[in-house]
Amino acid sequence: MSGRHVLRVRALYRRILQLHRVLPPDLKALGDQYVKDEFRRHKTVGSGEAQRFLQEWEAYAAVLWQQDKDNRQHSTEKACFGISLSEEKLNDFRDEQIGQLQELMQEATKPNRQFSITESTKPNVDNNKA
């Protein structure tokens, strides 16, 4: 793998994680973990698969960037992220990829949030307990 390719992969990886900062906390955590796993999983693929992998993630980054821009311009509306996959695109997926997509969808649409985010203005110190 060339040094130029490695730099391109790293830059894309960092860009995606930066873009995830605009997502709601639950989706950010889920997205960050998914990206880390996918990039790690594709470290040793052949050049053809690597090119397609990068193209798809670059397209994802471009869509997320555009959606963030649109959401900021229409700040009074609820933020919207994601796109529907065409049947043609779904037909290109391997069975393993369909399984991953299904798991991701189930995780992203869980009714009970996996993470609880609370803000506290005071430290939680109780000196009366011994």
Automatic annotation (TrEMBL):
Residues 109-130 have a biased composition (Polar residues). The keyword Chaperone applies. It comes from the Eukaryota. Transmembrane segments: none annotated. Its main location: mitochondrion. InterPro entries: SDHAF3/Sdh7. It holds the Pfam family Complex1_LYR_2. PANTHER family: DC11 ACN9 HOMOLOG, SUCCINATE DEHYDROGENASE ASSEMBLY FACTOR 3, MITOCHONDRIAL. Belongs to the complex I LYR family. SDHAF3 subfamily. This is Succinate dehydrogenase assembly factor 3. It comes from Nannospalax galili.
